[in-house]
Amino acid sequence: MVLSLAFYITSGTVPSIPQAYKMMTKQRPLTQTEEDSYIALDRLVNRSPELLALPMSDELSETIHSIEDKGLEVVIRKNASFPYYSKDLVEKSLIVHSPDYEMNNFMPTGTLDNAGRLYHYVKSDFQYLDGSKGSFIILKRESNLFEFITRWIIWVVILIIVIAFFAAWYINKRLTKTTIEPLEALEKASKKISDPALTTNPFTTKNQQKLSSEVKQLQISFEQMWQDLQAAKQEKDIDEDSRKELIANISHDLKTPVTSILGYVEGLIDGVANTDEKKEHYLKVIYEKSIALNELIEELFFYSKLDLDHSIYEMKPIDFSSFIQPILEEYRWEKDIDVIIDVPDKNLVVTMDEIQIKRVITNLIQNSIKFSHAEKERLIILISVTYSSNDLILTITDNGIGVAKEELPHLFDRFYRTDKSRTPTIKGSGLGLSIAKQIIEHHKGNISIASDQGKGTVVTIRMPLTKEAN
């Protein structure tokens, strides 16, 4: 390539293949051995060209053998035939080059290719007595890149095949250990997923360092999938338990007032209520139980609408300070209840649904009243409204019976009641706080409960302010 580039720079043309071939072969002066051999044959020609014709004379034969003993080759040509050429040469290759043997057309010295072997030669042309053109050539074997490739190409090919075979064997073995076998193991493990008795992760592999990076990542993904499936299964089991408990609670809460109503109706029909006073009492109880039953059905209906995400909200900016005052005034004159109101004289605008937020506040106050402490003379409810730079904060604090610490995480669960026996003396469906939580979260706020059993409860609601103005 370097020689070709040099040729291009000096001549301005790209060298032909023969030119490149000649540039890559050695051009050198005659050695002393070549020169002596040339002189020996040249003397015979000068004495008589016929000395180089067939049949070979003893003198010619002796001269040629002495030249060949020095590691040289000899070619004698007469027209297109070769009366003699050394045994290491190939006649067919000599014939191919025969056009170059024309007198004055073949350089006296140079490089000659014979069947892929490179020779440095020296040539002398002469003419036989019968007018035939003749020449003798003395050749010395040379080495070059082309000859090396020609001679060793078969071994190079064999070596490449052997290397390729061992490379394929090694790659196959490594792929089997790091990819194929792990993939087969993952396939077997994936078939075990449907087995309900399976409790351990079937995709866990001890020797992860032997896995290819791709298979390792796949194996990690399968492990994560197994963990997700187990978590989903546990969640499903929890949901199933909750569903059963929900059905039991609904059945109990619906059956209790219905049973009471039926009992009192039967008393009226059977004439047990035989006085006006008893009849009035029976009818009053039936009315109260019907109201309780209707409230439960309404709460169930409302909760189902929330759960199905049906749109029930009419959102608009409301001044919260003005909004809450009328609600709280309703409780100022309740018997045995002290309602303390702390609302700033400030416009605190919140984008909200008035009806739903009123439902939440009313439910929380009713809970404080419902769970008041029987041993205390009066129930105190403190309702305060404060604000931060972004939020409105509503706090409802009471001195009621409070809630046990272990029950706090479950207060917002649907149908959860701290009264596990669900006695009729404590009214409620167990849906109120769950509904309140969904409403507040729809307003992009949050609700939390802190309680100390026997001392009271604090409910905190935070909702984003739309704007703050004096």
UniProtKB/TrEMBL annotation:
Gene3D superfamilies cross-referenced by the UniProt entry: 1.10.287.130, 6.10.340.10, Histidine kinase-like ATPase, C-terminal domain
Q: Where are the transmembrane segments?
A: 152-171
Q: Does the keyword Transferase apply?
A: yes
Entry's localization field: Cell membrane
Does the keyword field hold Membrane?
A: yes
Q: Which reaction does it catalyse?
A: ATP + protein L-histidine = ADP + protein N-phospho-L-histidine
Which Gene Ontology cellular component terms are annotated? plasma membrane
List keywords of the entry alphabetically.
ATP-binding, Cell membrane, Kinase, Membrane, Nucleotide-binding, Phosphoprotein, Transferase, Transmembrane, Transmembrane helix, Two-component regulatory system
- Domain Histidine kinase as annotated: residue spans: 249-467
GO function terms (MF aspect): ATP binding; phosphorelay sensor kinase activity
The way it spans or sits in the membrane comes to: Multi-pass membrane protein
Q: What class of enzyme is it?
A: transferase
Coarse class of the protein's main subcellular location: membrane
Q: What is its EC number?
A: 2.7.13.3
Protein name from the UniProt record: histidine kinase
Organism from which the protein derives: Enterococcus hermanniensis
